[in-house]
Amino acid sequence: MSLVNVSNLGKAYRSYRSEWQRIARWFFIPLKPSAEHWILEGVSFTIEAGEAIGIVGKNGAGKSTLLKMITGTLQPTQGNVQINGRISAILELGMGFNPELTGRQNVLHVAGLMGFSSEQIEAVMPEIEAFAEIGEYFDSHVRTYSSGMQMRIAFAVATAFRPDVLIVDEALSVGDAYFQAKCYKRISEFKEQGTALILVSHSPGDVVKHCERAIMLKDGRVEMDGPSRDVTNRYLDELFGKKAQLKAVSAEVDQQLSEQMLASDADEFHTRPGYRKEEYRWGHQGATILDYLTVSEGVQYPSQIESNSPVDFYFKVRFDQNCESVVPGFLIKTLEGIFLYGTNSFLAGKGTDEISAKAGEIKVFRFSVPMHLNDGHYLVSFGVSSGNPLQELQPLDRRYDSVLLKVNRSMQFSGIVDMQSSFSECGRHLEVLSK
């Protein structure tokens, strides 16, 4: 049996010519409204135990309305929601908190509204206080809290008792990286025990990392329901327009370059053009990055790369142990250390078990990117890890700031990244616009 079953769900806000007509509708008298605006319409999906689903969409797509109907705080105009189990939700930061009460008093108040007895709450109070980690502020008035401190209390209370369905609506975005990781670790543990997660986020990376499946809402309807990578890519297309496809390296050329790198098992990384002896290298061992190759417009190790040109970054890895799940990574930074772009094989679309290696095996990996950067020098880092990206990765070998790259651009712009804007003059005379 599914934990969540949403069937033909819809919500409309209606206007009537008079209050009498509105009251008549309460008694099922069939009067048509003068105006009707559908916020959500025809939404259907199911969620199984242990499944994590992300909800994405532009502002106004109906995400918050959907969650409120799932939790029962808003009644649908059509369709129905069936929840088979206990649901816990963090829909709005600090929702249900009294600013004049202390954190401890608010825990008693909010958990009581969730249906737990005083004895049950007092039994888990030490765990809530320890998880929130706000120290003496736990017994201070909530009006003195920062938004991050409120989130810590809200999440600790919502997850003090494992729910069957957990809903998180953007609340974790106000927390620091340490506490976010702590929250997602608890969520992962709950999922293993059968809790279903509904995560609403404007961050595609969070949705891909924590959800196997995603739903995109557009104009109140389900635009797409499928694997989180595919759905978030569609969402990004909706936000920024469809990306131009990189000119793919031919299979023949790719094979030749790979064979060229595999011809030797020597560590030649430090002999290559652009290598920086000041690199920062670390990892738990188990693999060694031996070599790298940059290719742009058919030129290997170009002395400079033209801005907006496609670039292929190859790097060779020798594995000293068996690895069931291998995750290569890649990063570009400014000389000042600003992270410009980083990704790995998982975020690029490879499954957690699609890349493996045996001890003694040598593999070559490639990342292809368009170099949409301003004129200047940039630092390139390579890395290889093992493990599950959804839980915890173990870095085997990482070579940070190991390659210096020169990007050339004759017509420079302000900033670092070329957003590729366009310009046009609209209307030569103000009188034209006023007509």
Task: Report what the structure shows.
By secondary structure, the protein is of the alpha/beta class. The chain folds into two domains: 4-240, P-loop containing nucleotide triphosphate hydrolases (Rossmann fold, 3-Layer(aba) Sandwich); 251-408, abc- transporter (atp binding component) like domain (Coagulation Factor XIII, Chain A, domain 1, Distorted Sandwich), CATH 2.70.50. 25% of the residues lie in helices and 33% in strands. The protein is built from ten helices and 19 strands. The protein has helices at residues 19-26, 63-71, 103-113, 118-132, 147-158, 177-192, 204-210, 228-240, 251-262, 430-434, and strands at residues 4-15, 35-47, 52-56, 78-83, 87-90, 165-169, 196-200, 213-218, 221-227, 280-282, 287-296, 299-300, 305-306, 310-319, 326-334, 339-344, 362-370, 376-388, 392-408. Strands 5-6-7-3-8-9 form a six-stranded mixed β-sheet, sandwiched between helices. Strands 10, 13, 15, 16, 18 and 19 form a six-stranded mixed β-sheet that branches. A four-stranded antiparallel β-sheet has the order 12-11-14-17, with helices on one face. Helix 4 crosses helix 5. The longest helix has 16 residues, at 177-192. The radius of gyration is 27 Å and the shape is globular. Residues 243-248 have low confidence and may be disordered.
* Portion in helices: 10-25%
Number of strands: 19
CATH superfamily of the largest domain: P-loop containing nucleotide triphosphate hydrolases
Structural class: alpha/beta
Query: Number of helical segments?
Result: 10
Q: What is the molecular shape?
A: globular
